[in-house]
Amino acid sequence: MATQLEPEARDSADVFREEVRQFIADKFPEELKGKSVSLSATEGPIKETDAQKAWREAMGERGWGTPTWPKEYGGGGLNRKQAAILNEELARAGAYNPIGGMGVMMFGPTLLEYGSEEQKQEHIPPICRGEIRWCQGYSEPNAGSDLANLQTMAEDKGDHYLVNGQKTWTSGGQWADKCFAIVRTDRSDKHKGISFLLIDMDSPGVEVRPITMISGTSPFCETFFTDVKVPKENLVGEEGQGWTIGKRLLQHERTNLSGAAPGGRAGASLADIAKKYGRTNQDGTLADPVLRDRIADFEIRWTSFLHTARRAVEESKAQGGVSEISSALKKLGTKLGQERAEMTIEIMGLQGLGWEGDNFSPVELQGVRAWLYGKATTIYGGSTEIQNNVIAKRVLGMLDHQ
Amino acid sequence: MAVLNEEQEMLRDMAREWATNESPVTEFRKVRASGEPEAFDRDAYSAMAEMGWAGIIIPEEHGGSDFGFMSVGLVVEELGKTLTASPLIATTLAASAIMLGGSDEQKAKWLPKLASGEAIATLAIDEGPHHDPQAIEASVSGGKLTGTKAFVAEAHGADLFVVAAKDGLYLVEKGDGVTLTTRRLTDQRSHADIAFDGAAADKLANGGDDLLDKVLDRARVLTAAEMLGMAQIVFDTTLAYLKQRVQFNQVLSSFQALQHRMADLFADLAQMRSAVEAGLQAVDSGAGVSRAAIVAKAEANRVLHTMSNEGIQLHGGIGMTDEYDIGLYLKRARVLEAAWGTRSYLKNRFATLGGY
Predict the structure, then answer these.
(1) Which of A9, A38, A242, A381 has the CA that lies 20 to 30 A from A144?
(2) Which of A303, A324, A331 to mutate to test the interface with B (most CBs of B within 10 A)?
(3) Which CATH superfamily groups domain B121-203?
(4) Is A339 tagged catalytic?
(5) Fold annotation for A134-246
(6) Is the confidence at residue A111, as pLDDT, over 60?
(7) ipTM above 0.85, yes or no
(8) Does A296 touch chain B (CB under 8 A)?
């Protein structure tokens, strides 16, 4: 993979650090300090200011938004140590990485592994420059946890495929330029009949409808394909290889999702929230002993989860492969994130359940939306039940129940 | 598993091999059958001391190897897996008290003997059935200690007690003014109430006001390491059982209801291991020890409690028999859960340290 390529020769880490500092001093607009704006998978496009555009282009030109990707496709060509230095220096300067989204997190690494030379040349550089938004065409109304049951059909028409069907939970589908999708090219075999196809979202016959979630936001869409023509050169890998490629991409997704439980991390501690919204004793301790116990209980388990996330990284580095406890991180982190969000709104009382209005603070309103949206975390990216199947079968070696 | 250095890997492998070959659970059963209140095999402890295990945290100048708590934790975990009965933890904790609070003379007198296995020592802190270091009544006057200590672990084999009195920790040798009453607990190890009646006491005067807290931090972490070994083996044994037991013409491990329970236990065990290893590392680094020790012991209590119950349930009827080892782990688990703080106690202390 990209990260295993030979790093560009450099005299020392110090020389590289100096180069990064100089670059940031030259290119990072002072007015963007402390404001992180990157291409997001689930939020709409913002109107880019001149400064933001300049910074994105500067980072894109160096390939430093995708620092460890190979240089020949527009990546930074850095080794892990250099990438770490880059991150440190960006953080030190109050700067941010403006290149992000699904192309960076999931699709790019997968295409680098499985794509043809032409495909890499065509698709990777625009991702590195932050120019193209990708969305994921995986789930269907009848293919959620049982993803391989997907029915969207790509019919061979000689020089192109004719695609018909429906995808759902297409993150950012309404803003995406392109879609990486798994589609059926053969009805006779559930898994081997699946292929990995790249579809232009502005092709005739593609229709996108945003789905309003219980949180009131619409980060996902339903996407309909009606007689959409897709050129043959947009097939990644071989026909029938889509399940293998698609699963590999999900590994990148799960790595990125393990800590992603909205409301689960940033912000005030539960104890501070409880002090603000509840009664305290004269010595500043919480007056409600039961709540105090529950907060301590949560914080202890949250601490050991953070230790576990750190250990997974250390083990993976040391053994040069994915640590087996990684499989437990997603289910642990998402559950704890939900638990924290539930406690937060409970501690605030009805003031913590505001939907809209000036008589709620932005933090209170955001907390409600995060609590609701957080229910998705144990469903998407392989539900907790699917994670349990994966742990039981692949890690513990228990037999297939089916 | 934490990333280990070469010395630690060797130590762990050696401990694993010794525990598996020389000290399987059948050895504990022999100790139990003997009915001796001391409840450990002197020859086995000598062998452990000869391998250097009693001196792992003790400085080299006093006959130890100065490898630290992570290292002794690895050994303790392996011994926990086979329920090896020994005063290794008790002696290590007493040694740490002497290292933290002892004078040069006290260190020179005791640490070499503890490292070599010539002497055995233990902590005598609590005075009732609950861990409650705020409620200590034992007192010292004119170098003589008077008071009672309850459920002191490894008391029968100990030559030396590290005793908590109102004004600090004291070294008291077994002998005049020290009377033991055996308390046989469900784990069938060594426990005793001790009456100190004007026993000669030598204060650990160099440790500062929080010496007892520091010693208790270490007690929590090392006890959690033993519990980690136990939880790991209960999990492994239960998984192996589910893979071979056939009902309805299929192995139990093919049932999804059981698979998901094992996946939950796997995730719990991962958290417990992370918490315990972080606690051991904190003691060695000296950073955030008190909180890390609480997290280690509280998570060990939570997970081993669940694990030992699920272990019995998933074994079914056979798990209720004395012939199967699983019940021995359940009984030892509850004793260790009570030691140095139940979850209630630990959560209360965690909140207090957090200022809420």
Answers:
(1) A38
(2) A303
(3) Butyryl-CoA Dehydrogenase, subunit A, domain 2 (2.40.110.10)
(4) no
(5) Butyryl-CoA Dehydrogenase, subunit A; domain 2 (2.40.110)
(6) yes
(7) yes
(8) yes
